[in-house]
Design goal:
Blueprint: E1 6-12, E2 22-27, E3 29-31, E4 34-36, E5 49-57, E6 60-70
Antiparallel strand pairs: 1-2, 1-5, 3-4, 5-6
Length: 71
């Protein structure tokens, strides 16, 4: 049985973490060997364009950024 890991997830304008549009925290859930993370992000203020999805988890404080396109 794996333990839940808490993640912080944010949508940002750049890879420095500035210009946060939305953010939330949640714990992973495990089913077999697969872990899932589900968060609700309020993006009603977002306009179409390029953003980043940032993830950070409690065991590794480094932020990881993934390209995100909002249409």
């Amino acid at each position: 049985m794996s333990l839940a890991i808490r993640y912080a997830v944010a949508v940002t304008r750049d890879q420095t973490g500035t210009g946060v549009l939305a953010q939330a925290t949640a714990d992973t859930t495990a089913e077999g060997h697969q872990e899932t993370l589900s968060v609700d992000l309020d993006l009603h203020r977002a306009t179409a364009g390029a953003y980043f999805l940032a993830t950070t988890h409690e065991q590794d404080q480094a932020a990881y950024y993934y390209a995100l396109q909002i249409k």
